């Protein structure tokens, strides 16, 4: 009986801590983040890792969520794997065809037959999240199956490209373009930052692309503009997501927040998902930089 009780106690504790050991779990930060999730009409997952202290927070961190446009990080990895193998040239021009058109973004507005350097298409994929350009990059990388094989080989077993990937139609219906967990997407960002994705030089270029984020009105708006960050965000009607690597003065940290099944499907700045992205980012910044008195300038939000 005593043995059974101890086993149950161990299992219960593991569930409550999301598999985190007490030595690495940031209890104070977790308490603040759980409070921020109170009243949110939908499901949310958060993973935070302070690379200096090793402390983490995991709230639904291993639950699958739609990637929305954060899938463009794995697509970039798959593409750079092809470049590293010599199958593509990063700076070479490629020819746009009307058959590639998905929407009227920058790439989708090109004329049939127009030439554009591959590196510019990659930049547009990561910086402004150009969808036509991203699907083009996915195809150039060998398609979703090839990218998924790279992810699996590198230890990312939950992150997958679903769209235009044979055999993943049911997953696409449920999750959209791609699926992942907050922990894996944050770990993938760290993997790139540490020079472990494809090769050190490929990782460096990928990280530079991720450091040129046009959509800076969500989590990035809560971090001082002089602080270096790398970021990718994504949004569809019932989901908002963001993964951010922050070069904070007192230690780098990475976090990923994802939502799904949101009741609020509006596209205004007041959308509950967008508000949550900003709230989480602000909590993290002031937790890791407690002496910082910085806050967004009054009226800053009017620009959005």
UniProtKB/TrEMBL annotation:
Record's InterPro entries? Beta-lactam/transpept-like, Beta-lactam_cat, Beta-lactam_class-A
Pfam families given for it?
Beta-lactamase2
Q: Which residues form the Beta-lactamase class A catalytic domain?
A: 45-259
Q: Could you name the domain of life of the organism this protein comes from? A: Bacteria
Which reaction is the catalytic activity of this chain?
Answer: a beta-lactam + H2O = a substituted beta-amino acid
Could you provide one GO biological process annotation from this protein's UniProt record? Answer: beta-lactam antibiotic catabolic process
Instruction: List the molecular function annotations (GO) for this entry.
Output: beta-lactamase activity
Its recorded name reads Beta-lactamase
What species does this protein belong to? Spirosoma radiotolerans
